[in-house]
Design goal:
Two copies of one chain form a homodimer. Chain A is an alpha/beta fold. Chain A has 14 helices and twelve strands. Chain A has a seven-stranded mixed β-sheet. The first copy, chain A, is globular, with a radius of gyration of 19 Å. Chain A starts with a strand and ends with a helix. At the A-B interface, α3, β8 and β10 of A face α3, β8 and β10 of B.
Chain lengths: 338, 338
């Protein structure tokens, strides 16, 4: 196990890499904790949860809504949870988002930590303190930014991870490579997906990505600059995700291809082919036909919009991204021409 | 008009005392603001709201719930509000609590300010960044701590304030006097309520109380010490408020009398008589019969509880309060004996 502490504006997160879930009881008082997890994780790893207070949610993005938060709060009241309780989100991104949000508002804020169980949550969702819920088709419309006290990495959880979930995780890893790490991009081009999935190599890859993201967040916790780069592929991706039956990975993958093409008009980016090839190699879709008007109506409510402009993340080259405000009307034209 | 800036941990609040509501347009861009108010305030001062985007809520604590927040978020989406929008809560404590909460979670947090219209909101509720909603009979069970960018004091709003609302405000003023300001306590004993209500003297009293609270919050924003003193009378008060048909002022007034009596057992406080007399002079109830078991079941879920103890605010003398952890079982005995 390796412990790394990352400090943010007013708080810090302890990262426990290559850890074992059973060790968690050594860093917290389990009688003063409540685990939030979902049915899938609970059923697949029920032994791990013995001796813990648990709130088990229905699984899926569909339940990342206020009603679920209401139910968590009601159960915490029943459990007589007080301000010194810690919530621990054990699950994928939906579970960590809801847990972080519930902990941020319950009794005006209690401690929380995560044990992410999906690759995507390990390299992305669990890190950086953004939490929230969806409102209708709008993703993460309500939420806060508040850092977990700890993130606990037990890759044993990945043994039961479905292939589609591996792909979701690799989407964010490829995103990190695109915006910040050309060397990792080349490594991903060189090795097969399986060579990461079935070996100890995954621990190394997870740590590299977690630290990449944590470092970006550390210097721009409230997303006034650098942190925006992490939205690469997410503007169009999010607009697609809740409208179509796409996984987060599929939606963001298509979003990254779109953003690569849009970059060509602004930064003369000329490596869209490499991005598309890498996505395909990891089993992700690069293109899809979609109702452009419908996507555009969601884009207009994107959190990154300001007046008539949207801050859009473009690639200059593999490993180097920039944020550029683009007029919505201009963006609409380019998207229509894709 | 007098402007005072108070800085907190990571943000600051500008207090505009003795201000005129019409001046608000000079400090914000009204096209990028949404006013949140309630029917009563909107109807009584409709002229003031001309040229502003408004969301008008049903009036009353009964509506300080998640459903109201959901409806605000839906309306903000319809208005295409973005991250640079400012919400302005114009109303009493319910409106400022909901506005602060909605602004704290919408798009993971946007700016907000207040123009409090009740005496209670002016001297207490609008200050200090605590916001939230009730969950069932539990007050402020969900919320955050986040400071308003500005608080705008226009005492013209008080001209239409019902007498019961004046009394609610004086409850918190008397609380401030009890815990922190013996000189103000003597002043309140000396002058008649009317001499504050009908004269310019009210501006001075409001500013004194607002600054008293802001100073306490400044040095303990997240309530680890000194700020707890502001809960004097609120532990039992809150347990009474949502169970009985009591106004906040009435409930807290009874709560202060109880807390004064409880203080006698712990600190040898011997001025309960003066507290009771002052409350009565300002038209507030000092005693009430209530179902002690029912109140106690709510107390067990008080936010200030930790394990089997509750941090209870006691008076040592008029103007000097202390926090003492009291065992719930011990507290139950004392309350039963009152």
């Amino acid at each position: 196990m390796k412990k790394v502490r990352v400090s943010y504006t007013t708080s810090s997160t302890d990262f426990y890499f290559s850890a074992s879930f059973s060790y968690l009881k050594q860093i917290v008082d389990s009688s003063r904790c409540v685990i939030i997890t979902d049915e899938h994780v609970f059923d697949a790893h029920s032994k791990k949860f013995k001796g813990w207070n648990c709130i088990v949610l229905k699984a899926g993005e569909h339940y990342k809504v206020q009603t679920t938060v209401d139910s968590i709060i009601e159960q915490l009241i029943e459990m007589e949870a007080d301000r010194k309780f810690t919530l621990i989100g054990v699950g994928g991104g939906v579970v960590t988002d809801i847990t972080g949000y519930a902990a941020s508002i319950f009794l005006r804020g209690i401690n929380f930590g995560f044990a992410p169980t999906s690759l995507l949550a390990m390299v992305d969702a669990a890190i950086g303190g953004k939490n929230g819920i969806d409102v209708g088709i709008y993703k993460n419309m309500a939420g806060t930014i508040r850092q977990p006290s700890f993130i606990f990495y037990d890759t044993a959880f990945l043994k039961t991870l479905p292939d589609a979930e591996w792909r979701n995780g690799f989407t964010e890893i490829i995103k990190h490579a695109c915006i910040k790490d050309a060397a990792m991009f080349r490594e991903l081009e060189f090795y097969s997906p399986e060579s990461f999935m079935r070996t100890g190599k995954i621990n190394e890859l997870i740590q590299r990505n977690a630290m990449l993201k944590a470092k970006v967040v550390k210097y721009d916790e409230f997303e006034n600059g650098e942190r925006r780069l992490l939205n690469f592929g997410h503007t169009i991706g999010h607009a697609l995700e809740n409208q179509y039956e796409l996984s987060h990975g599929q939606a963001i993958s298509i979003g990254m291809t779109c953003a690569s093409h849009i970059s060509e008009s602004f930064t003369r980016f000329n490596e869209t082919g490499r991005v598309v090839e890498l996505l395909k190699k990891f089993g992700l879709p690069a293109y899809a036909s979609f109702d452009k008007q419908k996507v555009f109506s969601v884009l207009r409510m994107d959190k990154k919009r300001q007046r008539k402009e949207i801050n859009f993340v473009l690639l200059q080259k593999i490993g180097k991204a920039v944020v550029q405000p683009i007029e919505l009307s201009h963006l609409e034209k380019i998207i229509n021409s894709l």
